[in-house]
């Protein structure tokens, strides 16, 4: 269990820095400087091994690209009910809120991510709703815009995400994804809208610049 003295919010503040996102400098996030040390610290605080990676502590390429696209094309989000699925740091959700979405729900099953989203939203002066529920099996008709940044890195997860996005599309939602063609990204089911050279870190990626696209779901 997480110690009472070190709740997720306190842990995040102690182990990250509030920094501007490289491709989206209008937004600042609580970001870890290195991946392995914060992962180990998370395991220590939880008193458990095999803790999921701290995805919430970084601005991933797909999220950066999608956030940039939303801020540059605010009409996509303005007045809409938006869902940021697998929100992580909340970067895409924050961009949607800044672009004028009427409601933004940031969903992530990691309690640390939910805490990070709250801190990052406050740091950027926006209001978000959050949930730690697994929404992949839930109804999706409450949203006009469904956003996914970098969720196609594992086959089982990718399959569930794609099924959710298909259902969202059928319900009438616009579905946008930011992805640098991860291993399980179904690019044949998406139309590329824009591409960016995203600054990343070799601690996380295989290059310092990751070519990353924003995609719109299309009917197969």
In short:
31% of the residues lie in helices and 23% in strands. By secondary structure, it is an alpha/beta fold.
The side-by-side strand order for the widest beta sheet comes to 5-4-3-6-7-9-8
CATH topology: Rossmann fold
Strand and helix order: HEEHHEHEHEEHEEE
Distance between the termini: 45 Å
Number of domains: 1
Structure annotation, total helices: 6
The assigned CATH architecture is 3-Layer(aba) Sandwich
DSSP strand count: 9
What shape does the CA trace take? globular
Tell me the structural class. alpha/beta
Low-confidence stretches: 1-5
The major pleated sheet works out as: 7 strands, mixed
Report mean pLDDT, rounded to a whole number: 90
Overall CATH class: Alpha Beta
By CATH's scheme, which homologous superfamily applies? Vaccinia Virus protein VP39
Q: Tell me the Rg in angstroms.
A: 16 Å
Strand content: 15-25%
**Helical amount among residues, as a percent range?**
25-40%
Written account of the structure:
The protein is α/β, with parallel strands linked by helices and 220 residues long. The protein has one domain: 3-Layer(aba) Sandwich (Rossmann fold). 31% of the residues lie in helices and 23% in strands. It contains 6 helices and 9 strands; from the N terminus they run H-E-E-H-H-E-H-E-H-E-E-H-E-E-E. A 7-stranded mixed sheet has the order 5-4-3-6-7-9-8, with helices on both faces. A two-stranded antiparallel ribbon has the order 1-2. Helix 5 links the parallel strand 4 and strand 5. Helix 3 packs parallel to helix 4. It is globular, with a radius of gyration of 16 Å. The termini are far apart. 47% of the residues are buried.
């Amino acid at each position: 269990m997480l110690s009472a003295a070190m709740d997720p919010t306190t842990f995040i503040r102690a182990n990250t820095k509030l920094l501007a996102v490289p491709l989206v400098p209008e937004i600042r996030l609580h970001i870890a400087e290195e991946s392995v040390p914060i992962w180990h610290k998370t395991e220590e605080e939880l008193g458990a091994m095999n803790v999921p990676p701290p995805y919430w502590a970084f601005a991933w390429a797909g999220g950066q690209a999608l956030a940039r696209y939303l801020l540059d094309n605010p009409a996509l989000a303005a007045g809409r009910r938006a869902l940021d699925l697998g929100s992580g740091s909340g970067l895409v959700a924050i961009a949607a809120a800044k672009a004028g979405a009427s409601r933004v729900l940031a969903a992530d099953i990691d309690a640390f991510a939910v805490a990070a989203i709250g801190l990052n939203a406050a740091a950027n002066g926006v209001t978000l709703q959050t949930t730690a529920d697994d929404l992949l099996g839930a109804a999706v008709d409450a949203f006009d815009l469904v956003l996914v940044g970098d969720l196609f890195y594992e086959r089982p997860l990718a399959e569930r995400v794609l099924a959710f996005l298909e259902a969202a599309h059928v319900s009438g939602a616009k579905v946008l994804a930011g992805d640098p063609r991860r291993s399980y990204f179904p690019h044949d089911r998406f139309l590329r809208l824009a591409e960016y050279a995203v600054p990343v870190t070799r601690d996380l990626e295989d290059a310092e610049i990751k070519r990353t696209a924003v995609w719109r779901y299309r009917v197969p």
